[in-house]
């Protein structure tokens, strides 16, 4: 290969930069490779540009730069483009130069430089629609690289107004809605109240706020109707994102006949009875309030105990919905069923990928562990200790916490389990590395032959502790933390440490611990709970949580379609703010409380 060709581009660029005469290029031979022919073409463009008038010269150099970019020679391309004086060029040519430079900067993940290049396009000079769309998409890409969701959002809203193709506009509306859903509520409200938004931006902001701040589905529908009235010409109404469209199109149709599938004998019968009582209490309350209620058929899951039997009975009795079963194995069998003829709202969770119309509503302890991981992370903690009981549920809780906390980017730097109260002191000391400090002190004493004083210090690589323990254990663990020089270590706990009834004398040692629990337990009592408390003495026990589960099964059953339609949909229940996750599992946002003077003090939403 001719050595002259290997340095052709560098030579051309050097000559161009110093303003000397045009480099000499010879015509490509038949033996030249495609790359060599490409270099010769670039040389010819630059040669012609050196003799052309300014606008034509800029066009030729831009074409040469585009070929260099195609040949992965971006530095040379940028050097050529940077020397073009764009002040007197027509808008389209200035656009070509700016987008070539910006595209190269974005490929290098230099979003700041890309935005500076794009800013060279004066906003006073109108562009054809295609170029305006490309400019907006490049800006959106740059903001995305900078993780500036607001900037990306604004650019996409502008681009969506320029797109005429329905499919392309719909795709942009889905991206806009996803970005709005990822913005924190306070940030979204600042955008809406700043007074700087365009008509299109303001409509999107208010739509997201109306759905985000709705406390339950009924309020969400009311807010959606109000928004629709005010924004009749907005593109989000004319071509809404799928999640919003589903809410516009869906209606709440009462189910006429429900099968309540629970065991009437066996080990789960007592729990099932409490769930049934909560369900029927909600049923009769709805009836007293004049709301439509379905016909309830009681089914014994110890007799109707296989998916085949259940499906046959569903057809025979013309049931439109099944609520139950409670047994986890039964739920797993249903999850393995290819299709279900009617929706099933199971009262336990399965880890198996389930068919679309198998919904799962349970009181899994893992939910609380995940909520604790999220709360600890939101409070700024990145390194956690963990203390859990040596039980099956303790193991599940621990695994769920680690999985969630690590998915957020955090790290569990130490963990211990405990089985007996007598060993709690040793387990706490081990978790805090206090025993290592004592051993180190003894080794120093042996080495120097003298007694020394050593102030014991707990480990300094942890920000907080995640605790899952029953009340009798938790009441010892918190004082042991203080005894081992970790009194100020924040503690996040599951509801297991609280039995449901305030007892300042017994729980004074839990002061400072933050824990999540059901609204039924730590929230202001609902009308339903007050009514049940007059008839039962166990509504404030851990067993009472089953009444709440049954009540929520009734509350949520008319809204399964709406929950599936929108991830923003929330239903206020006795067990939390309910929403649907992937896999048709109904999850919940839980309130938080802190022990103050031995009594749980509910944290306000602002504190959350």
Describe this structure in words.
By secondary structure, this protein is α/β, with parallel strands linked by helices. It has 28 helices and 15 strands. It has a seven-stranded mixed beta sheet with strand order 7-6-8-9-10-14-15, sandwiched between helices. Strand 1 (257-262), helix 16 and strand 2 (295-300) form a beta-alpha-beta unit.
Mean pLDDT: 85
- Tell me, briefly, the overall form: globular
According to CATH, the homologous superfamily of the domain at 257-360 and 526-589 is Response regulator
Q: Note the total helix count.
A: 28
Give a brief description.
With 608 residues, the chain is α/β, with parallel strands linked by helices. It contains 28 helices and 15 strands. Among the domains are: 160-249, Serine Threonine Protein Phosphatase 5, Tetratricopeptide repeat (Alpha Horseshoe); 257-360 and 526-589, Response regulator (Rossmann fold, 3-Layer(aba) Sandwich), CATH 3.40.50.2300; 365-517 and 590-602, Rossmann fold (3-Layer(aba) Sandwich).
């Amino acid at each position: 290969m001719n050595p002259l060709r290997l340095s052709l581009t560098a030579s051309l660029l050097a000559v161009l930069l110093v303003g000397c005469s045009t480099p000499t290029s010879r015509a490509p031979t038949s033996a030249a490779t495609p790359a060599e022919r490409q270099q010769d073409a670039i040389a010819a463009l630059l040669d012609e540009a050196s003799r052309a008038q300014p606008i034509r010269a800029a066009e030729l150099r831009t074409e040469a730069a585009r070929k260099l970019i195609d040949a992965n020679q971006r530095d040379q391309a940028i050097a050529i483009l940077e020397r073009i004086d764009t002040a007197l060029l027509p808008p389209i040519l200035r656009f070509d130069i700016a987008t070539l430079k910006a595209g190269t900067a974005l490929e290098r993940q230099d979003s700041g430089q890309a935005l500076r290049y794009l800013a060279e396009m004066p906003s006073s000079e109108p562009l054809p629609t295609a170029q305006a769309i490309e400019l907006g998409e490049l800006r959106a890409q740059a903001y995305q690289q900078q993780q500036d969701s607001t900037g990306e959002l604004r650019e996409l809203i502008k681009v969506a107004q320029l797109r005429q193709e329905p499919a392309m506009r719909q795709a942009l509306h889905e991206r806009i809605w996803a970005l709005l859903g990822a913005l924190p509520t306070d940030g979204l409200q600042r955008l809406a109240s700043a007074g700087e938004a365009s008509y299109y931006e303001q409509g999107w902001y208010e739509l997201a706020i109306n759905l985000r701040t709705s406390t339950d589905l009924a309020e969400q529908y009311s807010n959606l109707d109000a928004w629709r009235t005010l924004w009749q010409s907005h593109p989000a109404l004319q071509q809404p994102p799928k999640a919003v469209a589903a809410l516009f199109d869906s209606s709440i149709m009462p189910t006429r006949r429900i099968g309540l599938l629970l065991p009437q004998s066996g080990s789960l019968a007592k729990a099932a009875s409490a769930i049934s009582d909560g369900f029927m209490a909600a049923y009769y309350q709805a009836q007293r309030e004049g709301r439509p209620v379905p016909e309830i058929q009681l089914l014994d899951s110890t007799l109707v105990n296989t998916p085949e039997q259940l499906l046959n009975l569903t057809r025979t009795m013309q049931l439109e919905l099944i609520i139950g079963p409670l047994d986890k194995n039964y739920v797993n069998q249903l999850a393995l069923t290819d299709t279900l003829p009617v929706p099933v709202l199971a009262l336990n969770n399965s880890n198996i990928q389930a068919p679309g119309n198998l919904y799962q509503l349970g009181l899994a302890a893992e939910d609380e562990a995940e909520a604790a991981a999220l709360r600890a992370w939101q409070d700024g903690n990145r390194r956690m200790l963990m203390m859990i009981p040596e039980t099956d549920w303790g193991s599940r809780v621990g695994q769920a916490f680690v999985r969630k906390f690590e998915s957020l980017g955090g790290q569990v730097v130490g963990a211990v389990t405990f089985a007996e109260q007598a060993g709690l002191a040793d387990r706490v000391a081990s978790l805090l590395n206090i025993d290592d400090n004592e051993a180190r002190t003894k080794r120093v004493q042996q080495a120097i032959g003298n007694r020394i004083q050593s102030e014991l210090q707990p480990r300094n690589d942890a920000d907080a502790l995640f605790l899952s323990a029953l009340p009798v254990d938790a009441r010892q663990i918190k004082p042991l933390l203080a005894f081992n020089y970790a009194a100020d270590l924040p503690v996040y706990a599951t509801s297991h440490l609280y039995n449901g009834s305030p007892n300042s004398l017994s729980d004074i040692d839990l002061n400072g611990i933050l824990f999540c629990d059901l609204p039924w337990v730590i929230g202001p009592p609902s009308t339903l709970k007050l009514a049940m408390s007059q008839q039962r003495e166990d509504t404030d026990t851990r067993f009472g949580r089953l009444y709440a589960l049954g009540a929520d099964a009734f509350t949520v059953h008319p809204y399964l379609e709406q929950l599936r339609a929108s991830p923003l949909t929330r239903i206020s229940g006795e067990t939390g703010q309910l929403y649907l996750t992937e896999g048709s599992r109904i999850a919940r946002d839980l309130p938080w409380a802190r022990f103050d003077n031995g009594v749980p003090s509910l944290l306000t939403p602002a504190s959350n």
